[in-house]
# Entry
Amino acid sequence: MAVLPYTVSVIFRKWLPVIGVIVCLAIGTGVFFIAFHRDVEPESAPELTAADVLPYLKDGDIILRLGDGPLSPMFRNVSPTDRRFSHLGIVRIRDETITVIHSLGVITNRNRGVEETSLERFLRNARSAGIFRTLSADGTKISDKALTFIGIPFDWSFNLSDDSRIYCTELLYVVLKYVAPDITLNIVFLDTVGKEIIPLDSISNSSAFYEVAYFY
# Structure
């Protein structure tokens, strides 16, 4: 059996109540922190599925998402105000087939661009999504015109004056030029590329669109 020296034993007994109070406070603080942390820590959001979004969609709707890809933070932060989204697509509904036309920039494949994909694939890994609808333009004309740009490479130069390459929000910009020229999208100057670019909140904050639904 280990025995404390007398002087140490006396000191220990003298300070034992103080030590007990300190230990109790430490334990209490730890329990409080854990409980509080559990209360404020957001739970993982359930995966967003096509079934969630489908009831709200109409042909020609604009669907915005917040992705988890390496470029998502950059495109999200281009927006001066509403930073809920990082990518855009145009919904196309024909019979029972629902697809999304969008221009995707892929670092490993720089020629990839405007393509038509399933709603399920567009929402894959989406952290949130919003559906927006024009107040005046014909949705069928919007989706039909978007279809004509399939195959055009992604515009890594972010040049709005050249339709031979098209980036994310530029797709809607060029479609509206043909089917609804009265609708204009806000343009901001992006220092990182030294170009004027169309942010995602040019749709979500525009008076020409209204927000049908938001999923997060």
About this structure: Residues 1-41 form one domain.
